[in-house]
Amino acid sequence: MVVLSVPAEVTVILLDIEGTTTPIAFVKDILFPYIKENVKEYLQTHWEEEECQEDVSLLRKQAEEDSHLDGAVPIPAASENGADDLQRVIQAVVDNVCWQMSLDRKTTALKQLQGHMWRAAFTAGHVKADNFHRRFESCCGVPEITAAEGDSQVGFFEDVVPAVRKWREAGMKVYIYSSGSVEAQKLLFGHSTEGDILELFDGHFDTKIGHKVESESYRKIANSIGCSTSNILFLTDVTLEASAAEEADVHVAVVVRPGNAGLTDDEKTYYSLITSFSELYLPSSA
User: Fold this and answer.
1) Strand (E) positions, the chain?
2) Is 18 known as a binding-site position?
3) Report field, pTM of the whole predicted structure over 0.90
């Protein structure tokens, strides 16, 4: 087994989610389709609620910023001209959300709505961990996430939870940094078949602190945590994110998982690679 020694100065491990702790197929084939299939019904049901209106306002503001882009979908302001006008506005929001998702955009407006939709789905019982697991088995295959005696951790690779527990025992702080909203992150880690494992994480960051391909985001994260960027080890499957983190003097390892995008020969040579969290060696725990 390949072993990657963690620098002694590292006291914080920062984790990406998609393709790192969670198979890409789980997000692409299960979580995202739920949004597309249910966004119109969600908006119709929750339209009068303050939170929903805040989400729509943020999406409308994003649409205005995107007006110069090909295919951008504007969202008109709501009026008081009756049900037909309301449905026209709702349909514009639906079309905008689907357009953004088709481009795999990481806007805060989109991620915030997605997080609120997943929360509502869990609360109402429309989305449950066991339902996710059955769908995950069919679309992704069991071996990637099956734990001992068939006890599965929904949405997580089998090495993730044991490794995070070990890191915490060794005195490491563990944070999440994902394009998905903090609320969506907490839903994933709060609805594991192992139960609520949020206690394993010291905090969460999303695009509100900055985009993951911008080096300044990692400086802001270090400042928020109260450490130096050189005290952080960032684990991600995306080399653009790894490069941005390195520019901020963050230590980086690229995670190679089944279903992830392939790496170039230069990337394979340049970056430290791991295929499992168990391959990280913490000198402080020796």
Assistant:
1) 4-5, 12-15, 173-177, 203-205, 232-236, 251-255, 273-274, 280-281
2) yes
3) no
Backbone angles phi, psi at 14, to 5 degrees: -110, 125
In terms of Cβ atoms closer than 10 Å to its own Cβ (0-12, 13-18, 19+), residue 109 is buried
Per-residue pLDDT tens over the stretch 163-190? 999 999 999 999 999 998 998 899 888 8
What is the per-residue pLDDT across 235-262, written as a single tens digit (0 to 9) for each?
A: 999 999 999 999 999 999 999 999 899 9
Topology given in CATH for the domain delimited by 26-124: 1.10.720
Exposure string for 41-55, b = 16+ CB within 10 A, e = fewer: ebbeebeeeeebeeb
Look-up: residue for tokens 């997580």? Answer: 156
Is 237 annotated to bind a ligand? Reply is yes
Question: Could you count the other beta carbons within 10 Å of the beta carbon of residue 279?
Answer: 17
Residues in the chain: 286
- 29 appears as a binding residue in the annotation: no
Return the CATH class of domain 4-23+155-281: alpha beta
Is 16 annotated for ligand binding? yes
Residue 220 CA to residue 91 CA, distance in Å, equals: 37
pLDDT tens-digit readout, 43-76:
999 999 999 999 999 999 999 999 999 999 999 9
CA dist., res. 263 & res. 278, Å (int): 21
Sequence ranges of the domains in the chain: 4-23+155-281, 26-124
Residue 193 has what pLDDT? 62
Tokens 């960051």 -> residue: 205
